User: Which sequence fits this backbone?
């Protein structure tokens, strides 16, 4: 009788252990399913997805010299924003050739709209007069005169630059000063590019330089992707996360490593957006109590 009772107790204990093991295996399987779904882009269990704020685009087109000039304004714009543009006549000092001058206006209902301070929007102008690959200077006409914005080169007759406010923008030839081309990429895809020169490092606070060297962002991310910063390593891995650069780090890298000494002909530097798949692993006990959580990244 005693032996039978002991055997029954052992069976109960063994069964309880198996049940606990099954629960743990179920939890492990559930965690694996969540992890798998994240890696494959499937949304289950209400897992948080990428919440990058969408970029709104507004466009318009005008006739100039028998050809169409197209404008695209992209950024955090009002829902009812409208863009309009007019070709105007402008001159620049020192005989710089003006490729085009355009009075660009954004309206929201009956009122003119301007970007918030520190949140410029991107302007793209497609003009058949722009020669691809040739650097051009962009100026903004303000109450202080003609403010230098950036040196850019067109791609498919299109240039892109940041706009802190809207009025007249002037596109001209450059003075021939050697510059460094700064390229931003997501993988093999170019996000944006512009040129900088030593004279752009204008004052101890780098006021103009910081405006010229703007952060173009990583573009639209897919589900569960995260942007960690910039790197000069085209084949970056998770081991490079600790050395990811902010836009301030990019500016410092340009000032320190690329804009001192003699600028080489056709000098350029490329920064790659460090984009990873992000997921979290939670360790739970048989009572569904989370014991620990760790985050993981995959390139």
Assistant:
């Amino acid at each position: 009788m005693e032996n039978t009772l002991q055997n029954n107790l052992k069976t109960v204990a063994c069964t309880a252990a198996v049940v606990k093991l099954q629960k743990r295996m179920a939890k492990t399987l559930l965690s694996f399913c969540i992890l798998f779904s994240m890696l494959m882009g499937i949304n289950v269990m209400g897992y948080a997805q990428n919440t990058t704020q969408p970029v709104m685009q507004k466009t318009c087109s005008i006739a100039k010299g028998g050809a169409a000039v197209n404008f695209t304004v992209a950024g955090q714009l009002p829902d009812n924003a409208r863009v309009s543009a007019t070709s105007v006549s402008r001159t620049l000092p020192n005989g710089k050739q003006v490729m085009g001058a355009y009075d660009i206006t954004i309206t929201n209902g009956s009122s003119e709209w301007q970007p918030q301070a520190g949140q410029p929007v991107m302007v793209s102008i497609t003009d058949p007069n722009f020669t691809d690959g040739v650097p051009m200077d962009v100026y903004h006409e303000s109450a202080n005169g003609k403010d230098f914005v950036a040196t850019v080169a067109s791609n498919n007759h299109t240039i892109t630059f940041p706009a802190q406010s809207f009025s007249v923008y002037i596109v001209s030839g450059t003075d021939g000063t050697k510059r460094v081309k700064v390229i931003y990429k997501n993988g093999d895809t170019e996000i944006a590019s512009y040129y900088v020169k030593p004279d752009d490092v204008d004052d101890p606070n780098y006021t103009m330089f910081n405006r010229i060297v703007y952060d173009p962002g990583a573009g639209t991310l897919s589900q569960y992707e995260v942007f960690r910063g910039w790197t000069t390593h085209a084949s970056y891995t998770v081991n490079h996360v600790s050395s990811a650069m902010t836009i301030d780090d990019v500016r410092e890298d340009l000032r320190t490593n690329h804009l001192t000494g003699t600028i080489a002909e056709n000098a350029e530097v490329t920064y790659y957006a460090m984009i990873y798949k992000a997921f979290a692993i939670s360790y739970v006990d048989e009572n569904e109590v989370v014991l620990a959580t760790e985050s993981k990244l995959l390139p």
